C-alpha cells in the first residue's frame, strides 16, 4: 500500500479555507436586526424629576474620576455643589489615579494634600485606582481616559450616577433678561430609573449623521418611548451613546469585558476581529463598541441568560454641551431621541431657545474646542479664540466692537441669537464664581 502524500500546495489550500471560514462568519453575522426585539433591550426613558422616597439611598453613589490634580479639583467642586444641595445620596466618590502627587519636588504632593483636606471637609471619598493606559495614544489629554472604566467596578454600590469632572451642575432661572443661579443642585431622579435598566446614557446627538436620513417622520409612527429604527442604533456603532454622564449598575464582568476590549485577547484576532481595539479609539468609542456587541448578541439570541437592558436619557437635560450655544443650527439637539433618525441639519427648525435650554438643563459639559475650558490658561494671543466665539449683534456699537477686536481676521461671529451669547458667557462666569476659595491647583496651560 502506497504511502499518503500531502499536496504540495497545502499552504494555499489552508489559506483558502481560513479566508472562506471568515467570509462565512461575516456573512451569516449580518442577518437582519429585528426592531421589535431591540425594543426589549433598548428604550427611550421619559424625563421626569420624580425622586422615589422609598429607595435605600445608602446603596447609591455619585461617582467621578480623575487622572490629574486639575480634574480632581474639578470633581471636588462638583461634589461640593451636590453636598450643599438637598440630595438624598450621601456617597460621593472620586476614583483617581493612584499616581497623583507622587513627585514631592514639583509641588504636586502638597497640592494633593490640600485637595484631600478639602474633600474630607465635605465628606467626599477619594479612592485611588490603577491607571488604565490607552495603548494607542500618547496624547496626554486622553492617554489615561480608560481609567474611567473603574466606575463599573465599584461593586459596593447598587447603582451609580457617573458624570465627567469637566461638567457643571446647573439650576438656573431667567429673570428680566438675566440668568440667576437658584443654588446647589443634584439629579437624584436618575437613581429612580426603573430597576430593570442596567445602563442609561444620553445619545451623542452632536455626532448624529445628518446626511443619513432614514425617512420622513411625517410618515412614521411617533408614539411610544422606543426607537423608531434599529438601523439608527446599529449604523452608529462607535458613537451612539455619550458617556460623559451614565447611570450604571456596577458589574465585575462588565469591567473585565471592557478591559478585554482595550487589551484584546489573542483569540480575538481569529474570532472577534470586528471588536479589535484601534489606535484611534478612546473611552467613548470602546464603550459604544462593547454596548453595541452586547445589544447585537441579545437581539440575535446569542448572549445566554445575562441580558442587559439599556435606557436613553434626555440629552436636552443631561447631555448639554457648552459648544451647542455657539452653533448656527440646532436640529439634532432639539430633536427627541426617538426622532434623531429623521433629522437633517438643512431642515431649519425654530424650536431652539437658549434660555429655555439652560433653565431645563441639569448638567452642562464644557466642550468648546478649540477654545480652552474655563480653568485652562491660554498661551499666546487670545485673538485666535475670538474667531470662534459669538457676539450679540443687537444694538451693536461697531466702534466699540472694532476697538475690542481690532484684528478683523479674528473677530467673533455676529449673531442675532443674543440669548445664546448670554448663556455661553454666563456659564463661564458661573464656573469662576464656584471655584473661588476652593481651587487648590495651578492653572493648566494650553498652547494655541
TrEMBL record:
Keywords: Membrane, Transmembrane, Transmembrane helix. InterPro entries: GNT1/Glycosyltrans_8, Nucleotide-diphossugar_trans. It comes from the Eukaryota. The chain crosses the membrane at residues 12-28, 62-80. This is Glucose N-acetyltransferase 1.
